[in-house]
Amino acid sequence: MVFTSAEVARRSLVIAVVIPCYRVKQHILGVISEMPQFVDHIIVVDDKCPEQSGSLVMAECRDPRVVVIQHEVNQGVGGAVVTGYRKAMELNADIAVKVDGDGQMDPALMSAFIQPIAMGLADYTKGNRFFSLDTVSGMPAIRLFGNAVLSFISKLSTGYWRTFDPTNGYTAIHCSLLEIIPLKKLVGRYFFESEMLFRLGTVGAAVTDIPMHSRYANESSSLKLSQILGEFAWKHVRNTFKRITYNYALRDFSVATLELTFGLGLFLFGLIFGIGQVIQSNATGDPTAAGTVAVAMISVILGIQFVLAFLAFDISRTPSTAIHLTLSAALKQ
Question: pLDDT class for 137, splitting at 50, 70, 90?
């Protein structure tokens, strides 16, 4: 069952919607007009839009819930969302929902994003366009490919093994989480959603996927897969190293730490030792001894087994308990 507008209101939740705007002039008024009645604040962030979307909203929109913020310098979608989050906190919102201004995200689905947070089942919800094959039929092929390439490494870098579609920008978050996440460290542009998941993972927030569909029409996009694929890959590798270091060396030291350490050590030893022996055998013409081959192979196999054991432990530690209830109480003290 999904909350109705009346049920959201009865729970006395203050809902703020953040809409970053860049080249969305032809869609933004329509997006605002579709906002559910239970939304208390609509925060439109004009990220130095060349079409002056923010000015259009101020001139044409009569919805009293709307607040327009205009950036003097373009900060990217992440920078615009952070600005919106800060305003939501100023307005004492309980939940901040982020939707794009291009009309791809259906506001009618918003209660489904709010419900798990309101019920204390999640701290952060995000859309998943891959839940059903029927929902991806209208998605551009380039976006399908980009999500497929980056999804697995995103799981590794964030620790959220049960989520998918990491670049999905339809999200909702309990605002108490915004108090403890270092918003200044969130990257400003297209990696924002993945960086947000990484930061949520460092505090143990519970994340839930919400099945959704997207509406694709004639909207324009400045996202080019060829430009961001390498950048995404590098940043995911960096966050993977940081997450594992934080969780298995600095904050905790467990059997999983030993499994990863020995696993990588044995694998690298077996690989390097084996390659070295092959090179030496080719250079001298002498066959490699069976025992030498066995040492290399056993080291590699044991190394892989240890790493798989570590991954199984890491998957079992995926955060699943919402922390915002206790966090809100602690922040009020």
Answer: low
Beta bridge partners of 125: 172, 208
Helices 192-203 and 141-158: crossing angle in degrees, nearest 10, is 20
pLDDT digits (tens, 9 = 90+) for 223-239: 555 556 677 888 899 99
Instruction: Give the rounded percent of residues in the chain with a pLDDT score beyond 90.
Output: 62
Q: Return the SS3 of 136.
A: helix
Distance CA 206, CA 320 (A): 5
| Residue whose tokens read 């467990």 | 254
**Which residues on neighbouring strands pair with residue 174, listed in sequence order?**
95
How many CA atoms within 13 Å lie on the side-chain side of 71? 23
What integer is the mean pLDDT of 77-106?
A: 94
How distant, in Å, are the alpha carbons of 158, 221, 237, 274, 310 from that of 266? 25, 46, 21, 12, 14
Q: How many CB atoms lie within 10 A of CB 30?
A: 11
- Compute the distance between CA of residue 15 and CA of residue 69 in angstroms, rounded to an integer: 18
Q: How far apart are CA 35 and CA 98, in angstroms?
A: 12
**Average pLDDT value for the chain:** 87
Query: Which of these, 19, 94, 4, lies nearest to 61 by C-alpha position?
Result: 19
- At residue 269, what are phi and psi to the nearest 5 degrees? -60, -50
Long-range Cβ contacts of 306-313 (<8 Å, 24+ apart): 306/259, 306/260, 306/262, 306/263, 306/266, 307/259, 307/260, 307/263, 307/264, 307/267, 308/263, 309/256, 309/259, 309/263, 310/256, 310/259, 310/260, 310/263, 313/254, 313/255, 313/256, 313/259
What's this model's pTM, rounded to 2 decimal places? 0.87
- Distance, CA of 58 to CA of 69 (rounded, Å): 10
Q: What is the pLDDT of residue 331?
A: 66
* Helix residue ranges per DSSP H, the chain: 5-10, 28-33, 53-60, 76-90, 110-118, 141-158, 175-178, 192-203, 225-245, 255-284, 290-316, 324-332
Is 188 a residue whose pLDDT tops 70?
A: no
Per-residue pLDDT tens over the stretch 256-302: 999 999 999 999 999 999 999 888 888 888 887 888 889 999 999 99
